[in-house]
Amino acid sequence: MPAEILLVEDRSSLRAMLAETLERENYSVEAVATGDEAVRRLQEGRRYALVLTDLKLPGADGIAVLRAAMEADRGVPVVVLTGFGTVETAVAAMKAGAADFLSKPVDPDLLLLLVRRHVAARREAVAKTLLAEEAGLAGMPAIVGSSPSLAEAFERVRRAAESDVTVVLTGESGTGKELFARALHALSARAAGPFVPVNVAALPEGLVENELFGHERGAYTGAVERRAGRFELSDGGTLFLDEISELPSGAQSKFLRVVEEKQFLRVGGTVPITVDVRIVVATNRDLSALVRAGSFREDLFYRLEVFPVRLPPLRARKEDIPALARTFAESSARQMRRKAPVFSAGALERLAEHDWPGNVRELRNVVERSVLLTRGETIRTADVVVGVPGETAAPHPSLDGMLDEVVERWRKAGEAARIRQALESTAGDRSRAAEQLGIPLRRLAQRIRELGL
Questions:
Q1: What's the pTM value of the predicted model, to 2 decimals?
Q2: What does the longest C-alpha to C-alpha distance in the chain come to?
Q3: Most CB contacts within 10 A, which of 4, 120, 240, 417?
């Protein structure tokens, strides 16, 4: 997806020349003639990868455009054009927050060099801020990388976060779909609300509707009390349904009604319940093929496929591997209370040579194992054990127990974080927290004691 640039220049001939120069480089350009029009678009909430503005404009001048851009999106780079070429003019613009300046007459090559540099820096900054910790995902790795394919996915997530549009995250297993869903939630106006993840494939077919919609007391044998479903628990926030392709056909029609009307009935209920929920779904399968095969409703498909975001496989962004490997090594070393080792050139080469069919999840496992294997401060080539396509690597008997221990610590840390979050959101009310977590009150009390909370 081409980066969008807001161009502000009152001279029509120069405006046309600048727009044509940028568009030839595959940038999408919105060209306006006045500062007032530029300020209006920025105040409407339109987002751009870069703003290019003349300083001397009719009405609102370039400094006013610069300030409006900074107020709308502090991270957007603004490049100013000045016809005077004075140091004082450039310094004033830079002090006001401009990322760069160009003197007229504009050199097209220099213009493109500056634009490429600042757009790339902008994308990298966006990538670095979309961390899993920011999205509230305890004990999981951050979203790391600055490759073009990942930056494009980030940009689509950022755009989707500006509205309540339904988002479908597609990609192979291990590409980080839940991390992106959490980042989308964290960047949206619903960030203060709950984020409720559901793995549809992990739900027994007979309990899917009960889990999603809840049940009334007496709805079936064993339903001794009313129970809220995941839709109610995510009211005011985001409901994330992973592996949506596995939703049973019987539940698809009810799910469609909630998507369209934001209303549903609990199992055994007669009074419609209205919820304010943003729906994000994910799949590693081709939903359109499932529609053609008759296993997924066509009307539901079109209601969900409003804003698709494709997550790239790791083999398509190998330039991100060194940064990812360092992040995972630091996280693993922190869990083991030791200094993070660095990767040798040979170790990084070995990582780059692998195709990573398991994507980021597989890379994380390999790096964790490498950290466990190395006893020094450097991860050597021999410490990096990657799988061979088509073969299953034999388990390392001396490491399995250590890996299990690390994984268990991460699992407990994640569970503790979820319990703390539920208790904080309910002001310490354990009954409400247990309902929010979907577990019995007695079980919650037991886990609080066992986790030392």
A1: 0.57
A2: 82
A3: 240
